[in-house]
Design a protein that fits this description.
With 364 residues, the protein is mainly alpha-helical. Helices cover 51% and strands 7% of the residues. A 3-stranded parallel beta sheet has the order 1-2-3. Helix 4 packs across helix 7 and helix 9 packs antiparallel against helix 12.
């Protein structure tokens, strides 16, 4: 009996190597789902140009780094499709069509865009393509007509925009009634599903650095220099953990310590990565009582994180020595991605009555 797996689309903008925030936010989900679903993982290199257009060499290197991290984490190119965004032209065509369905002020109300403008100190100097990338993300997703999109919490506004585009397209060009429930858009004749997000077990992993001026811990980020990368060596992990920000009001052994994950990254990390919950409970109580200091708790975290990262680190070294294998995995995945996206584009053009000539796209 022939069975058809449901489809997933998710991915990353190549801004460097993957870190622990990526791992618990999305990568874990991808690994768990790649046997059950038909998985597509996009490396969105064109989106990287929104803020780094003058650094194409860096973006190209980041694409390879991300792909290497995917393989090192256990993404299997025989099961999952990892591909390069810029090599799938149907995405660009869909972006243009979708841009006609979304008011500009709606795009600019996207809170993730506003936060990025603030975090990256872009002011009003960002290029036209910066808000356009929010529309491009809808095309990244809908080109593959997935059912689920595993993401981190900060990407939910982008997914809501994608859901709006799917509804709008299906209503205008496929005749779907606006009162149709989201889950029924395809059975009602729509082309694009109103996709559902799938959050990781940790929706926002804090970084290892000090909080912002308002006292809130910052999200783990390469740009904020507060990240532990999946490619970090054991000694680097140790150095970063031992210098991790903790409760500055606490004098070791004399005053109670703050154990809230919202206030102390040390305990946010133990809650997330330490599977020995009895140890966590015991040492959290001791830490709160002031009978144990930062050092033993940090040493335990070093052990926990290196146990997690070590096999990833080993596989990464394997692929770093075989760069052709990384390129081959991307080529195979991109070829498959093009086949799917071209079908979607053809169906979209047919629905829009713009299907004048058939075409065949060939990737060598």
């Amino acid at each position: 009996m022939i069975t058809h797996k449901k489809r997933i689309l998710t991915g990353d903008t190549p801004t460097g190597k993957l870190h622990l925030g990526h791992y618990v936010g999305s990568v874990e989900n991808r690994l768990a789902l790649q046997d059950e679903y038909d998985c597509f993982f996009i490396i969105a290199n064109k989106h990287a140009f929104t803020t780094r257009a003058e650094r194409p060499d860096e973006i190209r290197t980041s694409v390879i780094e991300i792909a290497t991290d995917y393989l090192a984490c256990g993404i299997d190119p025989n099961k999952s499709c990892m591909f390069v965004q810029s090599e799938v032209p149907a995405i660009d065509e869909l972006t243009f069509f979708f841009a006609m369905l979304i008011p500009f002020n709606r795009v600019m109300r996207n809170p993730t865009l506003a936060q990025e403008i603030k975090d990256k100190d872009l002011g009003d100097k960002y290029p036209f393509g910066f808000p356009m990338y929010a529309v491009g993300q809808t095309a990244d997703i809908l080109a593959f007509r997935p059912e689920l999109v595993p993401v981190g919490e900060d990407q939910l506004p982008h997914l809501e925009l994608t859901r709006e585009v799917a509804r709008r397209f299906d209503q205008i060009y496929c005749g779907v009634d606006s009162h149709t429930e989201d889950k029924d858009y395809i059975t009602a004749g729509g082309l694009f599903p109103v996709i559902q997000p799938k959050l990781g077990r940790v929706t926002r992993l804090v970084g290892i650095g000090a909080p912002s001026a308002d006292g809130n811990l910052l999200k783990m980020s390469k740009s904020l220099n507060n990240a532990i990368f999946l490619s970090d060596g054991a000694d680097v992990v140790q150095k970063k953990v031992m210098s991790m920000y903790t409760d500055p009001k606490r004098i070791t052994g004399k005053e109670p310590g703050e154990t809230s994950p919202d206030k102390n990254p040390l305990w946010a990390f133990h809650e997330t990565f330490n599977t020995d919950k009895a140890w966590v409970d015991e040492y959290r109580a001791r830490y709160a009582a002031g009978t144990v200091g930062d050092v033993p708790v940090k040493r335990k975290l070093v052990e926990v994180l290196n146990t997690l990262i070590d096999p990833i680190r080993t596989r990464r070294q394997h692929f770093e020595q075989r760069p052709d294998d990384v390129i081959d995995a991307l080529r195979i995945g991109t070829k498959k991605a093009n086949a799917v996206a071209e079908v979607t584009l053809a169906l979209a053009k047919k629905a829009m009555k713009q299907d004048f000539f058939p075409r065949t796209l060939t990737l060598t």
